Amino acid sequence: MTALLQRTESASTPAPVRLDADATLDRAVRTGAGLLLWAGLLLVTYWWAADGGFTDLVAWDTGLMSAGRLTGLWSADLLLVQVLLMSRLPPLEHAFGRDRLARVHRVVGFLSFDLMCVHVVTIVLGYAGASWLQVPATTWDLVTTYGGVLLSVAGTACLVMVVVTSVKKARRRLRYESWHLLHLYAYLGVGLALPHQLWTGQEFLQSTGRTLYWWGLWIAAAGTVLVWRLLLPLARSLRHGLRVTSVVRESSDVVSVFLTGRRLDRLPLRAGQFLNVRFLDGPGWTRSNPFSLSAAPDGRSLRITAKALGEGSARLARLRPGTRVTFEGPYGRLSSRARTRPRVLLVGAGVGITPVRALAEGLAYAPGDAVLLQRCTAEPLFAAELDVLARERGLQTVVLPGPRPHPGSVFGPAAGPDELAALRWWVPDVAERDVFLCGPSAWTSGVERLLAAAGVPADRVHTESFGW
């Protein structure tokens, strides 16, 4: 440990490293996306107010219908924003990263669903003259008489199923593959809502501006999904023709798969990113799973590494050379794109070392400017490869083995009772570095809290976790 400290301190005047200018662009995209989100909500609220939204609040029945229209507008707007967030749109993927997009998507999704429920209750109760006794008859009349309402009921049922299976307790009982399949019904739910909004939603069609706004939002949501989730992945898969070349067992439950294909140097892939991969080898080929690169791309071959956690990753050990592969991506912000400082700290736990190991190879840094902390309960992965990077690149590696001494520990027994002091001992200038972090969700959250206590700004901590 003393030698590590001395080497880190001796690099106090590192050679200049050229940083990626895209980090500034990504900050602008994040700011712009937030402003557009609020601008859309304010715009539909203005249109609601211009149509007498406030004056209708004077009586119970008209007030309930007015509140129902407003919550319906908000819900529809956020529902389409939710689709855009997970449409794999490159500016959003680059600016936010998959983990952050998933968190925002989750918040927006639950908020949109809650607003939709309020919309249904207030609209029905308003049409029922604010009388609960009239609700059953009014509901039947709305479903059988008003255009598109029956389809919207079916769409609501799809969204209810998606929301229920997205609750954490429900997700823990589902396989990732089953959850992912059920989650696709959200697109059906959104599509079934469109006729109801066009046929009975006066706020959508009363002016050219409103019609352009809502149709533009719908076309943008549908178009981005069609292009970035279907057409582009299909075109890239056909163009590059990925195939399995070999499968190597890294440990008892971790395997690496080597892939090759055509013109891989033209694939916009960076070290630290991941691909959603389908192996066309029989049953289960329709389901894709995210796999991080465990080696920096060299334009000739790719390597992914995974632990046998779910059904998809467990299949890797049985793959045969020559198996065809389709893929989506690359995705993820855990790459040089997020970098803002010459010095970096790389932190990985278990199989989370895979993108961290790729970054240790792919990032540019002077000797002593990159420190890697590897948390493991048994033998560390890629030990020989990291030793080569230490000799050739000056990578500083600290292996943290052993079981956790208590549930709140993130670094294990090597850190001792004071993990913050240990972190500052291993990396004295940790507050001046970019941190790239990968591992299980609960563990990465603990490391993020430790980094915050060490003075690392949140915008310099770049995380990819295994939660879903």
TrEMBL record:
It is a multi-pass membrane protein. It comes from the Bacteria. The chain crosses the membrane at residues 28-49, 69-86, 107-128, 148-167, 179-200, 212-232. Residues 237-337 form the FAD-binding FR-type domain. It is found in: Membrane. The keyword Iron applies. The keyword Protease does not apply. InterPro entries: Cbr1-like_FAD-bd_dom, FAD-bd_FR_type, Fe3_Rdtase_TM_dom, FNR_nucleotide-bd, MRET, Riboflavin_synthase-like_b-brl. Its cofactor is FAD. Keywords: 2Fe-2S, FAD, Flavoprotein, Iron, Iron-sulfur, Membrane, Metal-binding, Oxidoreductase, Transmembrane, Transmembrane helix. PANTHER family: 1,2-PHENYLACETYL-COA EPOXIDASE, SUBUNIT E, NADH OXIDOREDUCTASE HCR. This is Ferric reductase-like transmembrane domain-containing protein. It comes from Microlunatus spumicola.
